[in-house]
Amino acid sequence: MEMNCREILAAVGGRLIQAGDMEKNIRRLIIDSRDVEQEDFFVPLPGEKSDGHFYLADAASRGAAGCFIRRGSDAPVPKGVVVIEVIDPLESLQCLATFYRDRFTLPVVAVTGSTGKTTTKDLIAAVLSGRLTVLKTEGNLNNQIGVPLMLSRLDRTYTAAVLEMGMSGLGEVDLLARLARPTVGVITNIGEAHLEMLGSRENIARAKCELLSHLPKTGSAVVNGEEPLLTPHCKGMAAKLVTFGFTDSATLRCVSAEARGDEKVVRLEQDGYPALELVMPLPGRHNISNLMAAVAVGREVGLRNEEIKSGLANLELTGMRLETVRLKTGITVINDAYNASPMSVAAAIDVLMEKAGNSRKIAVLGDMLELGILEEEGHRNTGRLIAKMCLDALVLLGERAKLIAQGALEAGYPPERIHHCLSHEEAAAITGELACTGCWILLKGSRGMCMEKILTILSASNREG
Hints:
This protein is of the alpha/beta class and 465 residues long.
């Protein structure tokens, strides 16, 4: 970060409670006192179990240069640091982030959508690295707290930023886009996630498309051209519209995807640009869409085909997104446990089928949460898909996952292949019994199901390398 305490005070319009070294440059904004180091600035936020104001002294003892304190708080003022009183520390964090972002003239890419946000963010960052130095969202810093923290990490060494924007309701993407002021917006797709909060896919599209109104006239909206729910929201916006897809009507089109030895090569075409052939860095048809979004962003930022290709070689994926883990027992686990919806489970099963070939295939699936009115049908449809794909075994965890079993049985899936479990430990034990050398296991469920615990148990003392 490139600000001092005096500038922070002016940016948030706070009241100086305790002066200190007002000219000291702040290194980072921190919300967890345990992470504070010298020259950090501590932002105390309320949490589910505690309040950051209880840890002001701890932050100061660890070297914080300053901190916010909420007006009316009875927390003791820590000694030896700059203390700025504000009405709401979270709102001040957001205000400060926007003030700071406006100091930088650089491409800022905002990525939202029901599925594929994180992978697409990683692909875009890789593509742009063919020419630019890129700041990209780390971990799950994609909400009203995370986006401001990511913006605060900008400095003059970066020449582009790629920010993921998550949401669970209306108005949230609007807030995040207002903070980040993106120059390019990406919408990957519209699925069923968050139906519990929003009630319909139409409302999900509406929530995601809040991003579009924040794009400038000189900016670009890179949108999935095969999602009709996005079309009405793209009309009348100021930014340039760029669509991607597999049909002739898309701006950027995938015209072929063919195997060449062990590789899959896709050919992308776009009017006004030379055709581009790329080796797919990830399996699955859905990742061709994600790759097209990344290529479209690269072109909107001005990259040439050679730069896009060289950038993709730098791809670094966020964990628990189609992460391949090989065990010493000769078993391969596709760890896609970060989250799940019917759309993303179908895509993950597609990857399992592609990667495993004729090998034994086991799907270990947990509940899909926040599906609202589609909860029952979404789970049943997943079961029907599994029956159609003829997976060798199905291990389920969670009450809702019983609906997956029902859907599979209705579609003719053999009941002896279905195993419903009551705990992660039981699921790991049964999966271990079903697995054999050379088999492939898909691990997937909603974030609240913590399906990665099953991998931890399975891989204990068995992971390669």
